[in-house]
Design brief:
The structure is a homodimer. By secondary structure, chain A is mainly α. Chain A has 6 helices and 2 strands, in the order H-H-H-E-E-H-H-H. Chain A has a two-stranded antiparallel sheet. In chain A, strand 1 (about 65-70) and strand 2 (about 75-80) form a beta hairpin. The radius of gyration of chain A is 24 Å and the shape is elongated. Chain A starts with a helix and ends with a helix.
């Protein structure tokens, strides 16, 4: 109801305003709110495109991370790839979902630029962004814990660092984790921006 | 400005309404919006108290997790505690901060019940809740990755499962991770609720 009302006011602004059918806000205040919200929506779109880039980079970097060591025994060849560790498999799946969602949300963000006073799309974005934030953060944090272990090992649990052997692989997965944390920071800004846009009339 | 205006309208509702000093919203619509927002705020307070309980339980369970095995050699006693693993230390610190924030946010939530039309506190809550959500999720996910490793080990990286020896310790840390994920779910609901409360007038 809220949504359709706002749409009506915005579309029929010029004709209805004179007939006194939009008494909630004055025309000037309405235009100012629309300008503010449109500015926020443009910034939202820019951030969203950047976060798509970061999430995609994280997915691809992790998904293509593998290394085969140049020596092998009769029975065994030393090889590391992301799917040796379940956490990294989760990382690739979660970041793929996040990338997909962020790409799909681009048209909704464009709708928010075209119709800045409509609140439905904005509310949809903030809800889905919050869920994506959780998904991305969990993937990034879980992988960061494992990457830390791969670099440093843990003497108490008797887990040895594997990065002395698999240097290229470790650089790859570290890069993917850094990219995913950049995506997390951008999505936090997206949620904050949506909250700011919802606040004003 | 937005905030002070809303306060004035709410406090002086009965006297000013008759003089036509609150032209933005009709009295009935205003009262309905206040009722809706007050309901949301009460639900917010209940969720917040639950999330304090969950976060506190997670912190204490992890912080007190230690186990000494009943056998030892001449040089070595087998002992596990949460600060053997940096991830669990991060977990305890992050969950303590989250618990502290959630306790401090309770008065703000009470203000939102008393003054449902004021938007300042609500916006403050949604911003801080989003940051707390990220902190809690990263602690929960990183610890979950390590707990999985402690239970199952990883043959590719040659990391052995330590839960065969330290059963009590592993039950403790698994419980803490479950409690932290419950806290994460509750904080997601808090953010969603705040967004819903911001949407309506």
């Amino acid at each position: 109801m809220e949504k359709s009302e706002a749409t009506t006011i915005e579309i029929g602004e010029t004709s209805r305003e004179r007939k006194g059918k939009a008494p909630l806000l004055g025309a000037a205040e309405n235009a100012r709110a629309a300008g503010y919200k449109r500015g926020v929506a443009v910034f939202d779109l820019i951030l969203r495109v950047s976060s798509v880039a970061a999430a995609l980079a994280a997915t691809i970097t992790m998904g293509t991370a593998e290394q085969t060591l140049p020596f092998f025994t009769q029975f065994f060849q030393f090889q590391a790839s992301y799917d040796d560790l379940p956490t990294f498999t989760f990382f690739v799946i979660a970041m793929s979902i996040a990338t997909g969602y962020l790409v799909l949300s681009l048209p909704v963000s464009v709708v928010c630029i075209a119709r800045p006073l409509v609140r439905g799309p904005r509310l949809l974005l903030i809800l889905c962004d919050t869920l994506t934030l959780t998904l991305t953060t969990s993937a990034a944090a879980a992988s960061a814990a494992i990457v830390y272990l791969a670099h440093n090992g843990n003497s108490d649990a008797n887990w040895l660092a594997i990065c002395q052997q698999f240097t290229d692989f470790c650089q790859r997965i570290s890069g993917a984790v850094v990219a995913s944390f950049i995506a997390v920071a951008l999505i936090i800004f997206l949620v904050v921006l949506s909250a700011l846009a919802l606040r004003k009339h």
